[in-house]
Write a structure and sequence with these properties.
This protein is α/β, with parallel strands linked by helices and about 280 residues long. About 40% of the residues lie in helices and about 15% in strands. A 7-stranded parallel β-sheet has the order 3-2-1-4-5-6-7, sandwiched between helices. Helix 1 links the parallel strand 1 and strand 2. The longest helix has 29 residues.
Length: about 280
């Protein structure tokens, strides 16, 4: 269904992983998706790229524009948003899904004094700060859309915002992201723009596929095996459901597990599966 026909979307961090899955579903739902990431063309070192995501969006019948964008560069983000404004005059969906996973695995479970100082940059500056910069730059275009069709900002966050998970910088970055969601929602109240934090559970990204290929599947057993994990496109369907909801502002300022939204809106992943989520306390 072309639920988002005529809408314009921007997904930062769409080369691979959850951002890629969100871009695919926005495109499949009819939105014109601007696919942004640092890796423009496919390479041998890491799977995923902006161009491969664009090709997959188009294979689903969607429209996509590739943009190489370094999320640590304010100028890159501002230029990208300016381009969208020139071409479309408004932006209906902004998804902040930037996360540098390339060296993250080596930081998991380490006490903060054993981590390199750069771990803060890789998580908080790259992920959380880029979401703030993108939201600031995009606000006029989102407000233009909100005044007529309504608009949505989705910040991809996680359980680490509320409890210890992985390491200290990770928790700080996600907690700040959720606080930003709540406070931006306050400023945007009654302006037609909703802001929501999306909490994925363990998701079968390219990195996890590599683990599976190497035979490291033990940690997925509590999810019913690797095939029971959430998929990147499952999160994309959550974003589509929120963007298509005319009452989306009732959810503004809050966090939602993807499975929680699946239950609320009645969607499954692309394999027809539903996924459990931890209940709110």
């Amino acid at each position: 269904m072309q639920q988002l026909s005529g809408r314009v979307a921007l997904v930062l961090g769409a080369s691979r992983g959850i951002g890629r899955g969100i871009a695919l579903e926005l495109g499949a739902a009819g939105a014109h998706v601007h696919v942004a990431g640092r890796t423009l063309d496919p390479g041998a070192d890491r799977p995923g790229s902006v161009m491969s995501t664009v090709a997959d969006v188009e294979a689903l019948g969607g429209r996509a524009t590739p943009v190489r964008c370094d999320a640590t560069s304010d100028a890159d983000i501002a230029s990208l948003v300016e381009r969208i404004g020139t071409e479309h005059g408004a932006l209906h969906v902004l998804v902040n899904s930037v996360f540098d996973a390339s060296s993250f695995g080596a930081t998991i479970g380490k006490p903060f004094w054993e981590l390199p100082i750069d771990a803060w940059h890789d998580i908080v500056d790259v992920g959380t700060r880029s979401a703030y910069v993108a939201s600031v730059c995009a606000a006029p275009l989102l407000l233009a859309a909100g005044a007529s069709d309504g608009a949505l900002i989705v910040n991809v966050s996680a359980l680490g915002a509320r409890k210890y998970l992985y390491n200290v910088p990770y928790g700080v970055g996600k907690a700040a992201l959720d606080k930003m969601t709540a406070d931006m929602a306050h400023d945007l109240r009654d302006r037609g723009v909703a802001v929501v934090s999306l909490w994925p559970n363990v998701t079968r990204t390219e990195g996890i596929d590599a683990e599976i290929l190497a035979g490291h599947t033990e940690r997925f057993e509590r999810f019913g095996g690797a095939d029971g994990l959430e998929t990147p496109r499952y999160h994309g369907r959550a974003v589509v459901a929120l963007a298509a909801d005319p009452d989306r502002t009732q959810h503004s300022g809050r966090y939602y597990w993807t499975g929680e939204l699946g239950e609320m809106y009645g969607f499954t992943d692309e394999n027809g599966r539903t996924h459990r989520y931890p209940k709110r306390r």
